[in-house]
Amino acid sequence: MRKFDTVLVTGGCGFIGTNFIKYIFDKTNYKIINIDALTYAGNIKNLIDIENKDRYFFERVNICDAKKVNSIFEKYKPDCIVHFAAESHVDRSIFGPKDFIDTNIIGTFTLLEAARNLWKDNANGKLFHHISTDEVYGSLSDTGYFYETTAYDPRSPYSASKASSDHIVKAYYHTYNLPVTISNCSNNYGPYQFPEKLIPLMISNIIEEKDLPVYGDGKNIRDWIFVEDHNNAVLDIIYKGRVGETYNIGGENEITNIDMVNILCEKLASKMNKDKDYYKRLIKFVKDRAGHDRRYAINCDKIKKELGWKRQYDFNTAIDITIDWYLNNKEWIYDVKSGEYQKWIELNYSNSL
Ligand code: NAD
Ligand code: TYD
């Protein structure tokens, strides 16, 4: 079992990173360094509860900025890096791929170089954990699963940029013996997810009684996992994962998009004391996403058998936790959607990038 003193998290103000930092802050005594550029998807207010704690440090840094990244690495000397920072939304990657190439590929390369430099004399017990996605494996038809051995076949600029970063991470292991692990996870849901992804977008539109845009025939399938189960798996990997290995993480919970939207409509109707079908009138089938992957489904036997990981949450419980969080945090939704939050960042953090 590895032990660390200082864990550096990239992208800790985004959806999964925020949940990860809160989780390890509670569960460990690590010094935690959060580096994040605070793009539209990063919200520093998510971590307001711990911002003044003496073992938590925030640095506004773009991971493509080698000079700044190196100086942060020298300053804190992390012995573990957990790399979440990315451009993460497929639709945005279709309309503007460049940021995805920059952050996901060049940013990952920049971090790998900084880690190689920092640990050049002794990399024993150190670890660079790279967070990736099941989307690198491409699209499945009605049957079959993604295994760690499945050939990469990315289709969107997002998944291609993540696939590229995975390959570079693996190259640093084989070429330079950099101690790395990689995880490829299925679709996450939970608190703090930016309301552009399916679940929080639908919840926030239902709250506002706006249209619920379902792409194509709505029969595309995703394998949904609660964010805390993902983060628990990441902890298992950084403690016990074999260096150089990839671990798939999945929810074993395949749901079509239209079924998911119907579930959300019904659950919100019940919470808001409306008729069961009240919100379903908002569902609108719209033009399909370009190159829309049909089905994702993860086989995660490896992490279960090798590291003893298992999910703690069933879908019904975790989706209720998620919906309740958005219902109780309407101001957060307004802030990130309206641009108010970005204005606040520019006022308060404009000099620090
Ligand atoms: P997110 O978009 O919510 O957050 C990304 C974070 O990275 C933000 O805080 C943003 O400010 C930061 N960031 C972006 N560009 C940066 C840069 N150049 N320098 C520094 N910081 C930068 O993303 P998420 O959903 O939390 O995803 C986190 C990671 O998990 C990503 O690597 C993603 O590919 C992976 N992943 C996500 C899912 C999912 O369902 N959300 C599933 C599997 C894997
Ligand atoms: P998304 O949350 O963007 O995740 P990903 O594309 O990375 O899997 O989308 C999940 C599924 O929901 C995907 O099949 C696209 C679909 N979708 C819609 O039908 N309508 C929407 O408004 C969005 C954002 C997604």
TrEMBL record:
UniProt cross-references to Pfam families, sorted A to Z: GDP_Man_Dehyd
EC class (word): lyase
Entry cofactors: NAD(+)
Keyword check for Lyase: yes
Catalytic activity: dTDP-alpha-D-glucose = dTDP-4-dehydro-6-deoxy-alpha-D-glucose + H2O
Record keywords: Lyase, NAD
InterPro entries (alphabetical): dTDP_Gluc_deHydtase, NAD(P)-bd_dom, NAD(P)-bd_dom_sf
Domain NAD(P)-binding: residue ranges: 8-320
EC number, as in UniProt: 4.2.1.46
Top-rank taxon: Bacteria
GO MF term set: dTDP-glucose 4,6-dehydratase activity
Assigned protein family: Belongs to the NAD(P)-dependent epimerase/dehydratase family. dTDP-glucose dehydratase subfamily.
NCBIfam families: dTDP_gluc_dehyt (TIGR01181)
Annotated protein name in UniProt: dTDP-glucose 4,6-dehydratase
Organism whose genome encodes this protein: Brachyspira innocens
The encoding gene: rfbB
